[in-house]
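User: quick one, sequence for these tokens?
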């Protein structure tokens, strides 16, 4: 405490009082500053970063803008992107990537550029764009989506080994949603199938189905990836069916036919499971492939070797009997194609599979079934 003597003249007392007040204030500020510095050391440093601003004298010849920053470029690129003008949108996305490398918009602009490049058919350049994120931005919120898109582009370019490696990197991520894990496993299974690594392919596909079944009651999961996994497993079974050969002698032929028929049923069961997931596109694909199974068995039996001890006349009788016996397979195929098209009509599904089913149905009717009129009923 400071005391101002009463005996001092009024002006002198005022000056002394002001001096004392200044000293007290300085003391308080000094003490307060020391405390403040100590608190700041205990807290993390923070900065407010603003994107650089391009200020021009005249409009940029490519962009048509005088002044712009990354946010302005991104908004305009996104507007063009959403209206389908991807070629023009790429100009704005590319400028962000080239001139605003430290901007928070770089990752999103790079991902959107990849999507635009895909849409205009520049798949190789899209891979490069996505690779900028997957190789150099591991913490980006766009990393997962970029990795998926890159893997699908690589698959379209028949670079399945790189696609499989990238999908393995996705699966190594700790914080991966159930849906993303299922998608990655299905795509990984497809990549391994294309590489001929069928054991690993089947393992990935079955793991995807197991995860789907484990979680489908806890949360909504799109059934399409599960249907796709089941379809791919059925395709693997179909390979085994097609590989089964029919050969002589007669006892061997009978055993071979039983093996081939059992593999057909195994494959058909896989395609039926695909249909049960209820996805219209994969259901129509599975229906089409079931019809093709019966056509394939019919063709295999028609091409099977004829017993060598038959005369020319007996061979003709044998072939005629075989046609009548195998005609039921054509009727089954025709019925499956019709059911597939009925399903497609109910679900309003018009895709490659439904068009192929219609073509096959017409082919069976016009080119094959006429040879066997009247057709025997099933079981006859």
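Assistant:
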């Amino acid at each position: 405490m400071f005391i101002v003597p009463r005996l001092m003249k009024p002006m002198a007392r005022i000056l002394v009082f002001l001096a004392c007040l200044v000293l007290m204030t300085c003391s308080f500020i000094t003490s307060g500053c020391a405390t403040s510095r100590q608190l700041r050391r205990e807290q993390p440093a923070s900065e407010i970063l603003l994107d650089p601003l391009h200020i021009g004298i005249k409009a940029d010849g490519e962009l048509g803008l005088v002044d712009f920053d990354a946010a302005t470029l991104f908004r305009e690129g996104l507007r063009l992107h959403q209206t389908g003008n991807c070629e023009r949108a790429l100009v704005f996305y590319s400028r962000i990537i080239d001139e605003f490398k430290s901007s928070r918009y770089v990752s999103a602009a790079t991902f959107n550029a990849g999507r635009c490049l895909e849409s205009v058919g520049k798949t190789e350049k899209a891979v490069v764009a996505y690779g900028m994120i997957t190789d150099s931005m591991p913490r980006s919120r766009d990393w997962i989506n970029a990795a998926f898109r890159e893997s699908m582009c690589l698959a379209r370019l028949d670079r399945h080994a790189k696609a499989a490696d990238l999908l393995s990197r996705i699966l190594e991520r700790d914080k991966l949603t159930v849906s993303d894990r299922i998608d990655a496993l299905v795509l990984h299974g497809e990549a391994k199938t294309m590489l001929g690594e069928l054991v690993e392919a089947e393992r990935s596909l079955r793991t995807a189905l197991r995860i789907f079944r484990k979680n489908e009651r806890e949360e909504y999961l799109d059934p399409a990836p599960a249907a796709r996994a089941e379809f791919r497993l059925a395709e693997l079974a179909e390979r085994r069916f097609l590989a089964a050969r029919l050969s002589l002698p007669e006892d061997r032929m009978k055993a071979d036919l039983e093996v081939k028929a059992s593999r057909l049923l195994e494959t058909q069961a896989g395609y039926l499971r695909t249909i049960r997931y209820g996805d219209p596109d994969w259901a129509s694909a599975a229906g089409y492939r079931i019809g093709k199974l019966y056509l394939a068995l019919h063709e295999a039996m028609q091409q099977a070797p004829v017993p060598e001890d038959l005369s020319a006349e007996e061979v003709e009788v044998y072939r005629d009997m075989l046609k009548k016996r195998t005609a039921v397979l054509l009727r089954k195929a025709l019925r499956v194609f019709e059911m597939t098209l009925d399903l497609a009509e109910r679900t309003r599904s018009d895709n490659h599979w439904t068009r192929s089913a219609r073509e096959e149905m017409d082919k069976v009717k016009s080119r094959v079934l006429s040879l066997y009129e009247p057709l025997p009923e099933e079981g006859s």
